[in-house]
Structures are given as C-alpha cells and as structure tokens.
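re the bet — no i am not wrong, look at it urself. input seq straight from the record:
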Amino acid sequence: MPLNTICLYCGSNTGAHPRYADVAKNFGRLLAENNIGLVYGGGKVGLMGAMAEAALAAGGKVIGIMPESLAERELALHTVIELHIVKTMHDRKAMMERLSDAFVVLPGGLGTFDEFFEILTWKQLGFHDKPIAILNTERYYDALLQFLHFSAHQGFVKPAMLSSLIIERDEKKLLDALFAAV
C-alpha cells in the first residue's frame, strides 16, 4: 500500500507549550518534502492552521474537510489545494478516513481525542487496516497511553490494538515508521 496521504488530527488551539506549534509546522513541511498529501480538518487556527500553512508554503498538497457549521464561522483555511465542505462531523471523519493512507495524532483536545478513538475503533472493527501513529510531542500523550495500557490489562482494550500503534516523539522517526508500516 502506498503512502500518498496522511490524515493529521490535532488541536484547533496552539496549546501551552511553544514546541507543539513548532512540531506541527515541521511535520507539515516534512510531508510536503516527501510528496505526501496532508488530509486534515480544514481549519486555519491552532495547530491545524500552522501545520497546513507550513505544508502549503513548502509546496505540499493540502486537503481540508470541514463541516458547514464550522465553515460558516469562517474557520476554514481557503488557500488549501482542496477544501471540502460537508454536512456533518460524521461526514467529515468518514471522508478523512477514505482519503487517507495513514493517520497521525498530534497534541489536541476533545475533538482530537474523538477523532483518534474513532479511527482506532474503526480499525479494531475491521473498517480499515491503515497505520495509526501518535506524535507524542513533549510526552503529551503519556498519561493517555498509560490509561490505554491499564484498560488493556483490565480486559477492555485488545492488546493487539495498542501494539499496532506507532508512537514516536520525533516527527522524522514517526514518518520513517509509517513508511515501514505500509
């Protein structure tokens, strides 16, 4: 399976640590430099906007997907190569999955967690078999990963799902691991 597009889930805010935005920008540029299209939520704010703008500035292909309700609030980045305005968040997530060869989670809040857990659940249910990775910038996801391992130990999460996750703290190593996974 080729690695033509990667879906990035990340915050619509920049977060408290300045490194979050730096890594988002670096990863956007890294995708462009490797001719990998970026599929993301279509926003112009926060880590999403920083990442998309960095990918575009480096000549990358950026595909944004945003529900009407958010686009109406003028949150869409209209300079992307493709901007899809869809009816609902469910439509957005389904299109993001369909257009992507892999998924990467950067720091974010409830929306990012929702997207991560849904794409992980879809993999567990056999709806896709694409790699899922966490870019654990500044150990942002350590507590969540600890909880997921606790849940597996308690019999609620399949250990195979956790072992299938690619977890890296460096964006280049993460991309190399995704290439190896496909």
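see?? The CA atoms of residues 104 and 133 lie 5 Å apart. told u. also The two ends are 6 Å apart (CA to CA). so pay up
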